[in-house]
Structures are given as C-alpha cells and as structure tokens.
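U., I forgot to send this yesterday:
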Amino acid sequence: MQRQILAMQKELQNLRRQSAEQKAQTQAIVQQARVPQRSGPTPLISKDGVLPAIVEADLACGSGSYALGNRICFTPGGFIELAGIYRTPNEAADVGSDFGGIPFRNSPLSRESEFRFSARQSRLSGLFTGMVDPTIKVSAYYEFDFLGAGVTSNSRESNSYVPRIRQVFASIDSLDNGWHFLAGQAWSLITTNTAGITPLKEQIPLTIDAQYVPGFNWSRNPQIRIVKDVAPGLWAGLSLESPQSVLPPSPFAAPANVNLNNIGDAAGLLNNSTTYSNNSAPDIIGKLAFEPGFGHYELKGLVRFFDDRLIATNLNATTRLPGRTETAMGYGIGGSASFPVLPSLLDVQLSGLYGQGIGRYGSSQLPDFALKADGTIATIPMFQLLAGVVGHVQPGTDVYAYAGWEHAQRTGALSLVGYGSPTLVNSGCDIEGASASTCQAESRNVWQVTAGFWHDLYKGSYGRVVAGAQGSYTTREAFRGAAGLAPSTNMVVGLVSLRYYPF
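Result:
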C-alpha cells in the first residue's frame, strides 16, 4: 500500500507539473497573439484568448500523443533495428532461433557456423485511445514487424502472416465497474503480465532473439478476452483463443487411415505451403493475478481440444469398418511470480506450466500430441520452467539473465506414430553424412542459459538510441532409442542490436 501511495503521489506531482507547463504554454501563446503583427500567419488563438479545439485536444492527449479530431489520441511507437547474429551450428535462421530443431552431428549444418545482419525485427506500432465518457475508455492497437515470409506463415505460435501481425486488437475498459474486454490478436492470456491483467503490460524476456527463451509461456493469436477487477490488487481473466496444434516432426508419420492435419487452402486464404491441425473448439485460458503489495503473482490454467479422423476402411469385399472422429483433451496448470529483491535495483521472475498437450505455448515448440497404436490421440505430458533476473545498473542500463527448460515424456505407440519410442534408431546421429533413417531422435529436453544487456546511448528530444548484446547456450537432448543411445546437441548464439526509438 505504501508503494502504491508513493506511486500515486508521484503521478499526481507529474500531472500538476504538466498542468502548470500547459498553463504557462497557453499564457505564452495568448501573450504572443496579443502582440500586434503587421504580417505573418494568423495567430493560433482568437483575440479573447481561446485555444482552437485541435490545439486544446493536443494538450489534453499528453506528451508523445497527438489528437485525431477532438476525441481520439494517437500514440505512435516502434523502432528501427540492425541486429547481428552468430550461431554455431548453422540453423540457416534469421533473428529467431529454432531451439527445438538444433541439428544433430549427422547433419553438415551442425559442423558449420553462420553470421548475418538483419533489420527485419524493426517494428511499427500505434495506439488509439478515446474516452466515450469519464468512465468508458476505448482503445485500438496495432503492431507489425518484418519477420514474416509467405512460405513460413502459419497459425501455430506467433501467427506470422504477411505483413507479420504481432498484435492488432481493440479493447473497452469500464473504469467504474472494473470490466475489461479485448478482441483481436494479442499476447495470449497465458503470458505473464507485469501489472494486473492488462494488454501491453506483458512480461516479455529482454532478449534480442525473437524466439525469446525456452520455458517462456506465450503465443500471439486471435482471441476474445474478458477481465474483471475483483478487488484492489486482485484480477480474474478468461479468454477463448484460436486453436492450433504442433505435431511431431519426422520421423513421426501418421497411418494412412488417420487424418491429423491438412494443407492450407489458398482459395480459403490460408498458406498452402504448410499444414493446419484439426481443432473443433478454441483453447480456453483462465488466470488470476494478485498483487499483495510486494510483487506480482499469477495462477493460470488452460484447456485444449485435439481432433483426428479415423477414415472408413474396407476390411474385405463384404465388411467395411466405419470412420469416426476422435477428440482428446489437453490441459495445463501453472503460475508465475515477479518481485523485486532490491527495490529499483534487482528484479526476479519465475514461471512454470505443467500439463498435457501444451507444447504450442513454449518457445521450443515441442509437439502437443502423438498417436496410440489404434490411431487415437495421445497428448504429450510436459513441463516448462523459466527463471530470470533483471538488474537496473543505472538509469538507462539494464542487464539480464535467464534459465529455461522444456521437458517432454514418452507418449503413445512404441513405433513411429508415438513420441519418444525406445525403438527409434539413433545410431547415426553422431556420424557426419549418416542418413536420416539412422538418426530418428526426438526431443526430450531443451534447456538454455542466456544473458545480455541494454544501454541507452542517447535519450532526449530526438528519441532514444539503444545498444544491446546477448549470448546464449542451448542444449537439445533426445530420448534414449534402440541400443540405448540418447544423442544430444548444443548451440551457442551471440547477438548484438542497435535500435532507434523515434517516439
């Protein structure tokens, strides 16, 4: 409560200062307008000292925002970035790493390195806000970057269609009764917030890597969300989010009589170079957030639905086995905690999610489900953990470190239709040039440690120039297969970034 009172006092002082500055500005304009002018532009205000509505609206919108008409404030945002990326091994990737797809030693890529520059993480954003009345606020927000490519557009985690939409949503906030509504594409409700359950206040790792850190729970997808301010320091939220499933990569192969996913229909405006899973209901996510006066804490859960179709088959000339649709349910239970260890100097964050069929919500993109021997769905048990610290060395300089871990368990049939089967052949995973048939390894663990910093080179009237660097070490470990072999591989990544924030 003391921290909240101090914050409110500080905000009140800022408002008073802004009001005094605006009053002084208005008086200066009035005084200037009263000075006789032989020539030049028409004064901004009338002779009686009344400001035009558009000038008054600009002042009401506050610093960094601009009036659109008399009722809407527009706040531009975004940055221009040049990033440098170095990886060993070579993933042939841009600024987003594929943590769950680090190549094993049979691939020549595992014995190479890569370097590239990229400006594609540069971002454009804008926030529109308006007060319908003193208690109803409406907002609309858009945010784009340039990391999309036509053949990589999909609906799995970041919903990366071209131009690559990060977020596009509208929201309504009822300030008197504490109800909040959101519709559009935004960070999933499963993502930890820094304050309440508020859009644009998500606790995103400070990494340069666009895939963040293994163990970080997130997605950005279309949704409908409702949040209620239950009591001071207590919020409850529920969202219905667009579903999509991550399936195991090769060597997993569904039987011919099982339909799990389908190629996108270009005529229906989906990407026909990727596949889409069968989902008959949205993902349902709920969250409680509370702030007892020291830190921010969340309890969250999700329910998911997975479908496959067992196709009708002819057993013989006279007997036909009818087809049927099978539905399986996945779930996840988790929580998070964020709190200062040293106020204004060192912050700690912890989060975890456990369940079955939750792979989509982890940065490593481990699969959600495999199949049982009869072709029905077997959701994959899994947990995802993340720990991080952020140090505020001085104004304009932050350092950070994260450790994340994603772990999957064996599931389904003891064959290629299951996941992590002990019958898989891994004998060639450490032999360069060995065929894929001798390296059928499937990921069991992905863990990472990473650290970096951000430093303001300039901050002033012309925006902000920021430099950053990050280094990470990631290990991918496979299930033990035939002959007891359990291959593993690792990746070292170094990234640097130079960003200009003009707004």
